[in-house]
Design goal:
The complex is a heterotrimer of chains A (466), B (259) and C (447).
Chain A lengths: L23 E2 L6 H10 L4 H13 L24 E2 L13 H10 L1 H8 L2 E6 L2 E7 L1 H5 L3 E4 H7 L1 H7 L10 H9 L4 E5 L9 E6 L6 E2 L2 E6 L4 E9 L7 E3 L2 E6 L4 E8 L5 E11 L4 E8 L4 E4 L2 E4 L5 E10 L4 E10 L5 E10 L4 E10 L6 E11 L5 E10 L4 E11 L2 H8 L5 H17 L4 H15 L5
Parallel strand pairs in A: 3-7, 6-9, 7-10, 8-11, 9-12, 10-13, 11-14, 12-14, 13-15, 14-16, 14-17, 15-18, 16-19, 17-19, 18-20, 19-21, 20-22, 21-23, 22-24
Antiparallel strand pairs in A: 1-2, 3-4, 5-6
Chain B lengths: L7 E10 L2 E11 L4 E5 L6 H9 L4 E10 L2 E2 L5 H7 L1 E4 L6 E5 H11 L6 H14 L10 E2 L5 H15 L3 E5 L7 H17 L5 E5 L3 H7 L3 E6 L2 E6 L2 H17 L8
Parallel strand pairs in B: 3-10, 3-11, 6-9, 9-10
Antiparallel strand pairs in B: 1-2, 1-4, 4-5, 7-8, 11-12
Helix pairs in contact in B: 5-6
Chain C lengths: L1 H6 L4 H9 L3 H16 L32 H17 L4 E6 L4 E4 L2 H5 L3 E4 H7 L1 H8 L8 H9 L4 E5 L9 E6 L6 E2 L2 E6 L4 E9 L8 E11 L4 E9 L4 E11 L4 E8 L4 E10 L5 E10 L4 E10 L5 E10 L4 E10 L6 E11 L5 E10 L4 E10 L3 H8 L5 H17 L5 H18 L8
Parallel strand pairs in C: 1-5, 4-7, 5-8, 6-9, 7-9, 8-10, 9-11, 10-12, 11-13, 12-14, 13-15, 14-16, 15-17, 16-18, 17-19, 18-20
Antiparallel strand pairs in C: 1-2, 3-4
Helix pairs in contact in C: 2-3, 3-8, 4-11, 6-7, 9-10, 10-11
Classes of the chains: A alpha/beta (466), B alpha/beta (259), C alpha/beta (447).
Amino acid sequence: MVTKTDPLSRDYKYGFHDQDVSVFRTEKGLSRKVVTAISQHKGEPEWMLEFRLKALGHFPKRPMPAWGADLSDINFDDIYYYVKPVDEQLNSWDDVPLSIKNTFDRLGIPEAERKFLAGVSAQYDSEVVYHSIHADLEKRGVIFSDCDTGLRLHSDIFRKYFGTIIPPNDNKFASLNSAVWSGGSFVYVPKGVHVEIPLQAYFRINSDNMGQFERTLIIAEEGSYVHYIEGCTAPTYSSNALHAAVVEIIAHKGAHVRYTTIQNWSDNVYNLVTKRAVAYEDATVEWIDGNLGSKVTMKYPAIYLMGERAHGEVLSAAFANSGQHQDAGSKCIHVAPHTTSNVVSRSISKGSGRTSYRGHIKVLPAAYDVKVNVRCDALLLDEESQSDTYPYMDIDNPDVTIGHEASVSKVGEDQLFYLRSRGISEQDATALIVNGFFEPFAKELPMEYAVELNRLLALSMEGAVG
Amino acid sequence: MPDPAMLLDVAGLHATIDSKEILKGVDMRIPHGEIHALMGPNGSGKSTLAYALTGHPKYQITAGSATLKGTDLLPLTADLRAQLGVFLSFQHPTAIPGVTMVNFLRAAMRSQGKELSAREFLTRLTYEMAELKMDESFRSRYINDGFSGGEKKRAEILQMALLQPQLAILDEPDSGLDVDALRIVADGVRRAVEGSAGKMGVLLITHYNRILEYLRPDTVHIFSAGRVVASGGPSLAKEIEAMGYEGLLGEVAPVSASA
Amino acid sequence: MTQEAVVSGIDSGVVATRAGASPTWLASRRRAAWEAFSTLPWPSSLRDEDWRRTDIAKLDPLRFDPDAGVSTELDSVIAATHDDIAAVAPDAAVIVCDHTGRVQLHNCDALTAQGVIVCSLSEAATRHRELVEQAFDTLPAGQQPLTALWNSLWRDGCFVYVPPSVAANQPVWVIHAAADDRTATFPATCCVLDANASLTLVELHVSPATAQAELLSDTVSHVVLNRNARLDYCVLQDLGQGVWHMATHRVSLEADAHLHFFGATLGSKLQKAYWEALLNGNGAEAHLAGIALAGDRQHLDHQSLQAHKGTDTTSRLLLKTAVRDHARSVYDGLIDVGRTAQRTDAYVQNRNLILSPDAKADSIPRLEIRAHDVRCGHGAAAGPVDDEQRFYLMARGIPAEIADRIIVRGFFEDALGQAPCPEFAALLGPLLDRRLDRILHIGRQES
């Protein structure tokens, strides 16, 4: 049993871990042998093995990012790329092995499912161990499964879209994911179907020296609506874990996809995720992206506005405590006329934490009558905190209205004084202001998540005022 | 056939915005020197008529004609129509930060071939501003930028006074004004008409009788659903005030009831 | 010798000649800079982040002539610029520098009587070495290829020193003139204000406007403001259409020093200009503003730096650019607040007006904040001429292109209002109007 050695620099209630329960794991490191073993173990078709091996070929050729966070500690040879915890996926909670069930019980998954979810998927290390979906959604043709099942049972749709939005040579971590991917969610919403309550996936890394490389593919057909939520946790080990997911979203004509992330990895996780959506005519894609955990996050959810009147929203909140670097942001690529995008980013740095907003707005020559609004605000809580803002704007069409505003400041003294003059302690007043600062983000979350966010913030804020 | 003796001759005018038809066959004739009032419910298309006559690019003319003294206005861009003598007092004047009123007025007069020497211009400007009881600081302020509602309306009338158009289309020059400001604006309009030796015509879009008491229109037109549904003497305006559009439109025979 | 006139370019021989004519300290600096230039890779839009949007791969600096001589074109552009200055600022001291290394001083007696030193930079390098070194030390000579090239090759330039507590009684106008195809020019401006001193400095970079001649202009201005010094500093770049202009204007501010900088960029084929304020001392304040207007296929790149090290420092930057035709503007600005810079108040703003479909404006206003008690922000915007504004003007009889000119002038107005020297604004106004007329293709009927 591995013991928890890392002193907690941040209160992290998910820092526990279970004993290794894995039934199969590949050897450490990345090789043709490992990739082939993963594919064969899963019994995949030939084209997927070819896809993986091609991606493996790209991986060493793609450079590590020369910008952003420090990634020099990642040792690609010291990682388990595939760890299988159970023999088969289960759809009855009672059948889940006790140790894993305990984990998800402690994370509140079955309770959440009963209360407000249309479907739940729970991934433990490399494989989805539990899966359920409301029967009426299945009847209406909605597919919500893990990605491996998607490949197996819905191969036509799967193959049509898989890897088309984020090709395997897109960047180093997309190459890596494409070579060793396992698990993740496959969501298909047929034409006109509105999935009124959210689908949720829960990602948990349990093994030490583990890499989680899930792959999510969401296809929303014409006029449909779906809200997908993901939450992430991991135990706190002394060595680092790597999470390199790939998420692809296709929002067809008039579809509306909302993707909410509450990332609360423990602070030994490198969270290097590629998320990209295409929005066709009149479609709307929203990334609601909260980054509270991880050691390093580099994640820039992107929206390609391909069809006329498509709309993109990125609403993000980042909290960096001591030892954390949240390098997050957004990309909006306007390809078609009459497209609009709106980006709101709020970030807080505490202790020696560092938040960076990195955004890219690109308007292609054919995209006229485009409106873009970007608003980034950062709050610094301590002497050592850091904040950076890097907004890139490439405008290739004159008929574009772009506004970008950013601010960096500490907690306002006037606001603090006003609250304190009503009898509120400095700590509580600061927490109130911090919560208010995240309000544009919190109000977009389902109630249960907003409450959880506030709780996490309150934990992080303890001792903020010395 | 357009009548060249007529200052403004509008016949069967249809206009659309974003392929939605707003004007549905407007007929209107304004002789030289006359003041015509245009009244009608909100959303009936009065401002659209003003924009269509002055050439706002958002409005497409789909049928009909509009001539000024026999000259077809419709193929002309807004600046050419203004150079011919068409003036629009905007209901909501646009702000243009960074451009001072003085520079703007001189540029406008130069474009219309009405350039004055710097001294003459300043004399005129000072006189007109005094008549409109406008503050000196106005000259160096940016166009409509941060102006109050009343300041914007006066600035519109000031421009009309300096540019001396043939036809002034005044789109609610009285909205949002108090009694004193209303009198100043109305006096400004009357002065411009009288100064033109009886040549300038006015199309006055308004909701209120009060400005009509100052300006005494020759004809009142009632506009509804994109066209003129009734025309009459000043008494028509009084009837509207008494009965409302609904009461009146129910009774007055539609289209060109003459006074 | 006729052969040399045909093939002369930049090589180590030229550097050796320059070093041979310099005092020892400067000679070794020149050689070290050349050494650095020879080893540094040329800026690459593929490799270097700050060159990503400006590609000078096609520019080979070595094929330009660093020893170009006098010509009638050079003398006539100098005379015309001198006349322009006389018309707006007849009392100014004027220093005329050109690509041949000539430096002529005009009307500097009143300044000299105050104890102000006004002379050529080569003379200052010998007679006021410590002052020149103080200024040169603010910018490493061999870090970056273009400044390394400048440090090894500059022929001559101007030097101004204002002694403690002296308020210079005349503005100093510097003309940096160049002309003729394949000329390489390395304009040099060096200015040191001692404690409590004040000065107005205007720097004009000019070459024949209509010439298709291809020139390389690589310039560095070193400015040092000691404690509580005040400088009003204006820079005009009105070079001809064939000029590659590479510029660094670096001002270093000690405690309580104040800078008001204004830059106007109208000319050149391609420009890369660094506008930098280093706020090293506590309480220093830097206000930077500028306008840029680009048409045809011009490529204008501005990189600003507001580097805060002292406490209680303030900086502002406003850059307004208008682009038309196939022109491209690149703006990349950084507010860099160091750990020690508590109570920094900094803002950067970039607004772009895009006048035609093929014009392009990139804007990257960056913030890097390491101190906690700060107020920092930036704003950026890009858009076309507002149709409502244009219609409003056209409704008054103003033709579309004149309306656009009025709107562009209005767009520039708030930045122009920040030019700290009214005489400079008077010089710039007509230049800007003429340039606008050309860019907007307005004929002679409108003046």
